[in-house]
């Protein structure tokens, strides 16, 4: 089964400002880099999804420092970067066409934020026919919310996703 690693919104905004630090942000980068290394070794395409706000005043406007992919990610010249402007990485982007043209059948998800762009993209992928997807524990994160702390948001979403929209893999991160 041909796979692709899809990394959602791992941008500098989550690392430049303490109020936006993702839960366990340093471990998150380490774990995502483990996935990237393995994907590169196995010739699995790596796709970075980059939220791009059309509003010039936004911190995530294209070209601004906070908009950049996080500097510690192991981005290679062979990796694909896809810009999106909505929570769904498939909406008005080239993502679906890319996956179809490369005969991708299984997506491995990682990134941020758990309950927003990652959740929306995971569910959209399932609805578009990608129904054997994976997510490794501790490869996605979010911020504390008004109602729930980040760790509970993460746990809640993994419980909903697992064996419905994808399979949550516990233990060693190994592709």
UniProtKB/TrEMBL annotation:
Organism in which the protein naturally occurs: Heyndrickxia acidicola
Extract the Pfam families matched here.
Answer: Isochorismatase (PF00857)
Q: Which CDD domains match?
A: nicotinamidase_related
Q: Which family does it belong to?
A: Belongs to the isochorismatase family.
Q: Where is the Isochorismatase-like domain?
A: 4-131
Alphabetically sorted, this entry's keywords are: Hydrolase
KW Protease (keyword) present: no
Task: Output the InterPro entries linked to this UniProt entry.
Answer: Isochorismatase-like_dom, Isochorismatase-like_hydrls, Isochorismatase-like_sf
Keyword check for Hydrolase? yes
Q: Name one GO molecular function term.
A: hydrolase activity
Question: This chain belongs to which protein, by name?
Answer: Cysteine hydrolase family protein
